[in-house]
Specification:
Elements lengths: L6 H12 L4 H15 L8 H7 L3 H10 L20 H14 L6 H15 L1 H9 L3 H13 L6 H21 L7 H15 L10 H8 L17 H12 L11 H11 L2 E2 L11 E4 L18 E9 L2 E9 L3 E8 L5 E5 L16 H9 L8 H8 L4 H14 L7 H9 L8 H8 L4 H13 L1
Antiparallel strand pairs: 1-6, 2-3, 2-6, 3-4, 4-5
């Protein structure tokens, strides 16, 4: 099959975009992944298929259920990036087991790939976030990350060409198709998350400043310098990068952010308002001791973007924190120093309604392992717009009472082989919590693997 813009491509595009990769970077990476694996997360190196006498599906299932024990040391390329070296495969396997998902899960492979880039290939990651062409990004991945034996000009041109094909399909078929409001919010939150740790002291924050200054016309004609305070510049740059400047005010001044938000009708004056991910919170460091019972109307000093809300705790990401870094802080609902909130209309960016599932249905999916393990489970549920506490309460109730098994042992065994129930010991716990006989299911899994 040739290059397509399908479910895997959409999922990976949304993920890497949320991590701050630019389109040139994403498509340059995609071109290399296609060259390596055909963009198939369950792909086993062709020569290893013959050597091991296992298909892609059989190999994946055997690794998942533990019957194949040489994944780390078999020197067989596997997955989107065709991981081959033993230490990388060992880390990859541990990463997937910790999440309780199949080794062939596309999104988890993307998360692992990003982890590798962040920790071991920061120079490549920087290119993927700032590349001015697909060829530049593709070459960085080819020469510094994948490092195949053949690095000729022909290979470089071919991989960049694949990336250009992906770009053309993205533009033709629409990259945001199927995006819910929660996903629209997560898109800009992910961009901010990708900037955590950048600093003014070493100018690693330069891409933020450059993104802001590259958006013309500049608000009030002012070009931000690398030594300026840059909290408002950071949230504005995220809006620019996400393509949300029509719903989010762009400014390098906290005062003018509020003025623009008021003119757009998205300013929330109530300090006790409970925000959502993607909203912006403005601060006034001179807020008084009676903050809980009064409305702060002082001059704003600082701004951040809400990452998540858990109970009464608001988790915020901010540029230009102490020391000039992009970092995080927690504050309480109606806490001291809150000046107010900017609440963009993310619903206007949604092209699809969120699936209307009951708490009970989601709890059943959690028990089936489809939402992973905490803390990722909590983050994913909240990003999808679900109340985590309500879902977890339902999960606990089901586990306590023992939900009755509605599928045959054979059907559940097939789901286990497909990776839907994760790996042990999480698999055993999930099966028993859902009311299944673990020993009976595992016996059927073993039987199917021997066929």
């Amino acid at each position: 099959m040739g290059i397509v813009w399908g479910g895997v491509e959409r999922e990976l595009y949304a993920f890497f975009s949320s991590k701050g990769l630019c389109n040139n970077g994403i498509f340059g990476l995609f071109g290399n992944l296609y060259a390596e694996s055909g963009m198939k997360p369950g792909n086993l190196q062709n020569s290893s298929e013959k050597k091991l006498e296992l298909t892609d599906e059989a190999y994946t299932a055997a690794v998942d259920n533990g019957s194949y024990k040489n994944f780390v040391h078999d020197s067989a390329g596997y997955g989107l990036a065709q991981w081959t070296y033993w230490s990388r495969k060992e880390a990859m396997l541990a990463f997937h087991k910790a999440k309780g998902v199949s080794i062939g899960d596309a999104l988890t492979q993307a998360e692992f790939l990003y982890k590798e880039l962040s920790e071991s290939y920061p120079a490549v990651l920087k290119v993927l976030k700032t590349a001015t062409s697909i060829r530049e990004a593709s070459d960085a991945v080819l020469l510094q990350f994948e490092k195949p034996k053949d690095q000729s000009e022909t290979v470089r041109e071919k991989r960049a060409g694949y990336g250009q094909e992906y770009e053309a399909l993205y533009q033709k078929e629409g990259g945001n198709e199927g995006m819910t409001e929660a996903q629209a919010r997560q898109k800009i939150v992910g961009i901010m998350q990708g900037w955590i740790g950048l600093k003014r002291s070493d100018k690693s924050h330069a891409p933020i400043i450059d993104t802001y200054n590259g958006n013309k016309p500049l608000p009030r004609g002012y070009k931000v310098t690398y030594t300026d305070a840059y909290c408002a510049t950071t949230t504005s740059a995220a809006a620019i990068k996400a393509g949300y400047t029509d719903i989010i005010p762009v400014e390098c001044s906290c005062y003018y952010l509020i003025e623009k938000a008021k003119s757009m009708g998205i300013w929330q004056e109530n300090d006790a308002y409970i925000p959502k991910p993607g909203d912006e919170v403005l601060y006034d460091w001179e807020d008084g001791a009676n903050f809980a019972t009064t409305d702060n109307q002082g001059a704003p000093d600082h701004v951040g973007m809400v990452e998540a809300v858990s109970g009464s705790t608001i988790k915020v990401m901010e540029g230009n924190m102490s020391g000039g870094v992009v970092g995080r802080r927690n504050l309480q609902v109606n806490g001291r120093y809150i000046r107010g909130f900017i609440c963009p209309n993310y619903a206007s960016k949604a092209t699809e309604k969120a699936p209307e599932k009951s708490i009970d249905e989601i709890a059943t999916e959690v028990l089936a392992g489809r939402w992973g393990n905490n803390p990722e489970r909590k983050q994913r549920l909240e990003a999808a717009g679900y109340n985590y506490e309500a879902v977890q309460a339902a999960v606990n109730q089901k586990a306590k009472s023992g939900a009755s098994a509605k599928k045959s042992v054979s059907a559940v065994a097939q789901e286990v082989l497909a990776g839907k129930w994760g790996n042990n010991p999480a698999r055993k716990k999930a099966l028993e919590a859902a009311g299944y006989d673990y020993n009976a299911v595992q016996a059927e899994v073993n039987r199917l693997c021997r066929k």
